[in-house]
């Protein structure tokens, strides 16, 4: 499959939706519907994105700052009492799903969301990649909403219209799937990578603790370096002669984020980059709708963590590195990360 690489080329392709189309269905082994609005092109993309955007804009998320801070403080207090923490299961993932419970006004579903684990498609229940658990949740949720309407995010989606018609059940599933499955592994990886890096860099750790206004720049740099979503595919319409046999290309976000022609010393974590040209949250019309949520919850977590702990050590860990040529130094995912508090 063709790769589009480099910062400039990836940005250009991500903007050119007329040639490089998002009108496709991914994860065909675990779902039979598109994630929306991710897997459609404008103008449909814009209409669906506008439907759920109110839950993800900065001003709306800012109203949840206190609630986020309170639930994160509880997780950090548990870590302090225990003298350490396993970052994925006891810190990052609980933070993600509890914050979603606040944003989506569905606290009753948080425990079920947590049970799906950091990778929505592979649960601890059986360790096999499938979407049965998510499909059961979606069917049950929208069945209940048909009988008892609500004003939370899924209640609004259930009543929504597109081009003057009600959304189909599969379109509702596609939207709910995206906001539940998308982003959790990104934040888990970002938290793991950040705490791992800061554990061994006392000067930066002390600098961020002394001046928390620098934390957003650190988060941007970690997103760039880690590139939680290394690649995303598109359909190249110019190269597709038969719609039944689309010509796929991959936008290599990781190559864009490690392009030395655009980013000086890309293998280093640096706080002096200024305007950071990373595409860790995608680029163009299909940039990640949840990027402000990911940034805010990670910012609050790091602020509280650095205020609570002057130092810590990384204990038992299982880091899987990329097998992409040239990027083996970048963690692909964290399976377990123990932190021991000093």
What is the CATH superfamily label?
Answer: Cytochrome P450
Q: What profile does the largest beta sheet have?
A: 4 strands, mixed
The CATH C-level class name = Mainly Alpha
Global geometry: globular
Distance between the termini: 48 Å
| Number of E-type strands | 9
The tally of helices reads 14
> How confident is the prediction overall: mean pLDDT?
95
Using the 3D structure, state the CATH architecture: Orthogonal Bundle
Question: What is the CATH topology assignment?
Answer: Cytochrome p450
Gyration radius (Cα, Å) is: 20 Å
Percent of residues in β-strands: 5-15%
Q: Show unreliable segments.
A: none
Helix proportion: 40-55%
The string of secondary-structure elements, in order, is: EHEHHHEHHHHEEHHHHEEHHEE
Spatial strand sequence of the major β-sheet: 1-7-6-2
| Total domain count | 1
SS class: alpha+beta
């Amino acid at each position: 499959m063709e790769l589009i690489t480099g910062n400039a080329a990836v940005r250009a392709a991500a903007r050119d939706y007329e040639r490089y189309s998002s009108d496709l269905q991914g994860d065909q082994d675990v779902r039979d519907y598109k994630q929306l609005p991710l897997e459609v092109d404008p103008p449909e993309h814009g209409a669906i994105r506008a439907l759920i955007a109110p839950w993800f804009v900065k001003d709306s998320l800012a109203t949840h700052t206190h609630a986020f801070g309170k639930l994160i403080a509880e997780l950090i207090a548990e870590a302090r009492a225990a003298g350490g923490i396993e970052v994925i299961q006891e810190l990052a993932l609980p933070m993600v799903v509890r914050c979603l419970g606040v944003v989506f006004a569905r606290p009753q579903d948080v425990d079920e969301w947590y049970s799906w684990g950091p990778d929505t498609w592979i649960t601890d229940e059986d360790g096999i990649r499938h979407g049965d658990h998510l499909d059961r949740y979606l069917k049950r949720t929208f069945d209940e909403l048909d009988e008892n309407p609500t004003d939370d995010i899924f209640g609004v989606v259930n009543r929504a219209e597109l081009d003057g018609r009600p959304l189909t059940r599969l379109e509702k599933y596609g939207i709910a799937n995206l906001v539940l499955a998308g982003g959790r592994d990104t934040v888990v990886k970002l938290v793991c990578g950040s705490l791992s890096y800061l554990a061994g860099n006392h000067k930066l750790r002390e600098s961020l603790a002394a001046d928390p206004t620098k934390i957003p720049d650190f988060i941007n740099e970690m997103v760039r370096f880690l590139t939680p979503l290394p690649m995303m595919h598109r359909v190249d319409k110019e190269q597709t002669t038969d719609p039944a046999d689309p010509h796929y290309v991959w936008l290599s976000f990781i190559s864009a984020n490690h392009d030395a022609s655009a980013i000086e010393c890309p293998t280093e974590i640096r706080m002096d980059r200024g305007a950071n040209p990373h595409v860790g949250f995608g680029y163009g019309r299909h940039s990640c709708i949840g990027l402000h949520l990911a940034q805010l919850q990670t910012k609050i977590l790091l602020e509280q963590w650095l205020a609570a702990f002057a130092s810590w050590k990384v204990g038992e860990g299982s880091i899987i590195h990329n097998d992409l040529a040239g990027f083996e130094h970048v963690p692909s995912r964290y399976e377990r990360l123990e932190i021991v508090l000093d």
